[in-house]
Write a structure and sequence with these properties.
heterodimer, A: alpha+beta, seven-stranded antiparallel sheet, B: about 160 residues, mainly alpha, 7 helices, about 65% helix
């Protein structure tokens, strides 16, 4: 009896090994490996192309045509269709600069380090399943379609089309936690180049607003003048992604403490500011008086926002999560 | 009472002269002393007289053939499902109704009430900040996030 049991286990293991070998030698890659290669190679690629994008914000679809240039030195995304025409986002020298021509202003934030990319990819693969669901030609290039779906309910999902030769992401569709399409992008044309000139990363002269800067928790508490604390509850799979000081875009001096969490694909941003401290320009902040303990959640289709008053501060939780999770996070902040 | 009930059943045949001698004398003996049965007999005889005033009509041609064909046609073979409202059909129908009720209840309980979709100035700053930081994730759609930064800024009514 025991011999038969051992024999059955050996046959099962052998079958699994044969299956894996067949899959390997058939040339079809592992989906997780594809994602890892896509993340690793992103910084090395040098190309120029046109990308079409659609997003749904507040029930309104916003379409844009862009010219994208990318190299190891950085990236330029230039919006060439109305109503976003003239807007440029440049990632270069550790900064992400968003030029808004209608405001004559450039918003400045930090770009992610390469090491962070590796850690985030590993985090993504722990929290999401990846599987190849098809093959398609995009911008004249052969790609694998990879579906990235959450291991835990209540998280968003994504489908990514990865170039078979260069591992570049040539198209993607983001689906929110409740199953609705949030945004999509697709390369219509792509050309691989030996290099990009430095002029690629230049922006028109405009007022610079440093919109966020990394901080330690102690520094943040000192600068904000109140107890910046992590929530007692964060959904499983999310890890702390850092503390930041967030400045109002209109440069009025209004500031928020920002705690960010990520699960590799989805992020949670928690803004904290002193209560009764709306932006002097009326541009941002919670204008209405909120009663202690109540969390009001609103949905703009891209994310949900939960605003609550907690002691001496106002808290705003921003994430693509179910309403109940947003409320739970906000209500767990002391 | 019981006698009236049993006599009333014989009144039609009595009026038609179709009863035997024994039954006829029973009926006559009873209606001689029972006003109700006597009135009933009078009503029956009135109806009979009325019917007799009607003209005789010929049935339409082929009526009998149609009846005869329907009588003599073999009965179609019925599957267990078609056997009228027998137990198989009732059982399946009952199970389907129960399953539908459970499905509706389950979906109602499971699905939380959806929030209305809106975009206003109060949320703009936070949506922008969240979008800008989301661009740091390895598989973020930075092109779409730029559109989101623009869209949120538009609703904020930037000074």
């Amino acid at each position: 009896m025991r011999r038969k049991y051992i024999l059955a286990v050996m046959i099962l293991v052998a079958t699994g090994l044969i299956f894996q070998a067949l899959r390997f030698y058939s040339g079809r890659p592992d989906a997780s490996m594809l994602l890892t290669l896509a993340a690793e190679h992103r910084h090395d690629l040098c190309y120029s192309g046109t990308v079409r994008t659609n997003i749904d914000y507040g029930g309104r679809t916003i379409s844009a045509m862009t010219r994208v240039s990318h190299s190891a030195d950085g990236e330029r995304i230039e919006y060439v269709s109305e109503p976003l025409s003239g807007m440029v986002v440049v990632t270069h020298d550790g900064e992400v600069q968003t030029y808004r021509p209608e405001l004559n202003r450039t918003l400045v934030s930090r770009s992610a380090a390469a090491t962070a990319t590796k850690q985030k990819t590993a985090l993504l693969l722990r929290n999401y399943r990846a599987r190849i669901i098809g093959q398609e030609k995009i911008a004249g290039r052969d790609t694998y379609a990879v579906a990235v779906t959450p291991k835990r309910r209540g998280n968003p999902s994504k489908t990514i089309w990865i170039d078979k030769g260069t591992y570049q992401v040539l198209a993607s569709v983001d689906t929110s936690a409740n199953g609705t399409m949030r945004s999509q992008m697709r390369f219509e044309q792509v050309e691989y180049l030996p290099h990009l000139s430095e002029e690629t990363f230049l922006l028109p002269a405009a007022a610079r607003v440093e919109i966020e800067a990394p901080r330690s928790l102690e520094t943040l508490r000192r600068e904000m003048g109140f107890a910046v604390t992590q929530p007692d509850y964060i959904p499983e799979g999310y890890e702390l992604d850092g503390y930041r000081l967030y400045n109002c875009e209109c440069d009025c001096g209004h500031r928020s403490a920002l705690i960010r969490y990520s699960d590799g694909l989805n992020g949670i941003s928690i803004f904290m500011q002193p209560k009764d401290d709306p932006c002097g320009s009326g541009h941002c902040g919670i204008h209405e008086q909120k009663s202690e303990g109540s969390c009001e959640v609103s949905d703009c289709r891209q994310v949900k926002l939960g605003a609550a008053r907690v002691g001496d501060k106002t808290v705003v939780v921003v994430a693509d999560l179910p309403k109940e999770e947003i409320e739970r996070i906000a209500n767990s902040i002391k | 009472m019981i006698k009236c009930k049993s006599i009333k059943k014989l009144l039609s045949d009595y009026s038609a002269g179709a009863l035997g001698a024994g039954q006829m004398s029973r009926v006559e003996e009873h209606i001689g002393s029972c006003e109700a049965c006597c009135s009933e007999l009078a009503r029956i005889e009135q109806v009979t007289a009325l019917v007799e005033t009607l003209e005789e009509r010929e049935p339409p041609a082929g009526l009998w053939n149609g009846v005869y064909n329907r009588i003599t046609q073999p009965e179609p073979k019925r599957s267990w499902w078609q056997g009228g409202w027998g137990w198989p059909r009732r059982l399946v129908a009952g199970a389907a109704v129960a399953a539908a009720v459970v499905a509706v209840a389950f979906s109602t309980l499971q699905r939380p009430a959806s929030l209305p979709v809106t975009a206003n100035s109060a949320m703009a700053e936070y949506v922008q900040g969240h979008a800008i930081l989301s661009g740091q994730d390895p598989f973020s759609d930075r092109v779409s996030l730029g559109s989101l930064v623009w869209a949120a800024g538009e609703t904020s009514g930037n000074p």
